[in-house]
Amino acid sequence: MNLDLPVAPLPADQASELAPLIAGLSREQLAAWCSEHGHPAYRADQVRKWIFGKRVTSFDDMHDLPAELRRQLAAGFRLLGTQIARHQVAKDRTEKLLLRLDDGEHLECVLMREPDRATVCISTQVGCAMGCVFCASGLMGVKRNLTVGEILEQILHLDRLLALDERITNVVVMGMGEPLANLRNLFPALETLNEKGGMGLGARRITVSTVGLPEKMAELADADVPWHLAVSLHAPNDELRTQIVPVNKNIGIDAILKAADAYFEKTGRRVTYEYVLLSSINDGPEQARELAQLLHGRNAHVNLIPMNAVAPLEIHGSSAPRTEEFVHVLNERGINATVRKRKGADIDAACGQLRLQHEHASPTV
Ligand code: SAH
Question: Distance between alpha carbon 303 and the CA centroid of its chain, in Å?
Fold first, then answer.
């Protein structure tokens, strides 16, 4: 099907004159703003309920607010200020948005449906600095961190694609970028996702995926909220991992596992290890045995990820039999492992790929 839906024309660049995205304000910040503008602080809760719980698309639709407050809000902020530049719908009803930001940069976010859940995958940076060799997002380096508002507007846009009887049940921070390299903006965004007055999603329904930055993992553990942590391992030894994930050179698997163990101890949340299976690179039975040894005795789960093809790359995903054998070797050795289901294969290409195509197609960027 691959429906590429028509979207509204994009406004001209006026980044410097644009009002802030209201989604980026914490409850406290919005309450302070309400007080400064002559309204009781509880109005902030009402406003947030409209934004995060009721899918309104304009301040005017916030019926239970005084007209004056609605006018002031519209003058001071934007709701859905990021623009949908492209909207794709796959056969399995996975939907992908390319959002255009005020400075002309783009990000991607995805909505994945299962019978009993709707998971959204969101980005935290424009591009990525980690340079993993099989990943589209890292091909052009990192441009900048996303703001709190830009992180949360992805959820607002995707939530508004759902039917009335559907709701977002899970969030995975696995889109473009390294989330732990943008903790300053990730923390407030996660808080809003978690808060009752925000999206009201339990911490267990929110997964943060990292390339493995030990100091930042410790900061995440210190936050004392048991987010589900996923670590992108991709190899059972440092020599191979450094080839696949170049930043590993200065970090090393040992430090990552220690930080993950500490995360588990502090939060009680079992850590997931992600492992993208790359044909003839990291997918042999000997590597599965080495991985089993590495994780032996740890309360860990291995999520094996079929590689999404990335157009300019020569690297390919593993075959089904090779994948099955890998799982078998792990399971045989008592390591809990599953293979991630592929979603939206016909629109997908890997996350970051749409932006990549877009950048290549538009000489102005
Ligand atoms: N930087 C973070 C989060 C973003 S990537 C991290 O490294 O975890 C989220 C997951 O998607 C990671 O496990 C990453 O390795 C994986 N990924 C990246 N490119 C992929 C591709 N082409 N196919 C399958 N998975 C990919």
Answer: 16
Average pLDDT over residues 97-116: 96
Distances (CA, A) of 200 to 49, 120, 191, 269: 10, 15, 9, 19
Tokens representing 183 are 């903790």
From the list 95, 108, 178, 274, the catalytic residue is 108
351 is catalytic: yes
Beta bridge partners of 177: none
The answer to the question of residue 13 being in a domain is no
- Give 226's Cβ-side CA count (13 Å radius): 10
- 108 has catalytic annotation: yes
Burial profile 141-172: b = 16 or more Cβ within 10 angstroms, e = fewer: ebbebbbbbbbbbbbbbbbebbeeeeebebbb
- Domain co-membership, 67 together with 133: no
Residues spanned by the domain of 32? 19-76
CA of 149 to the centre of ligand 1 (A): 23
* 192 close to ligand 1 (CB < 6 Angstrom): no
Write the CB contacts of 320 (distance below 8 Å, at least 6 apart in sequence): none
**Quick one: which atom of ligand 1 is closest to the CA of 306?**
24
Sheet with 271-277, edge to edge strand ranges: 3-5, 83-89, 95-100, 106-114, 117-121, 170-173, 206-210, 228-232, 271-277, 300-306, 336-339
Cβ(22)–Cβ(79) below 8 Å: yes
Q: What is the mean pLDDT of residues 243-272?
A: 97
Rounded to an integer, what distance in angstroms lies between the CA atom of residue 142 and that of residue 136?
12
User: 276-312 pLDDT, tens per residue?
Assistant: 999 999 999 999 999 999 999 998 999 999 999 888 8
- Beta-carbon contacts of 9 under 8 Å, excluding residues fewer than 6 positions away, are none
What's the domain count of the chain? 2
Strands (E), 23-82: none
Is the pTM here over 0.70, yes or no?
yes
CATH number of the domain encompassing residue 218? 3.20.20.70
Assigned domain for 4 exists = no
Both tokens of residue 336? 């809990």
Please give the distance, rounded to the nearest whole angstrom, from the Cα atom of residue 29 to the centre of ligand 1. 33
> Same domain for 44 and 159?
no
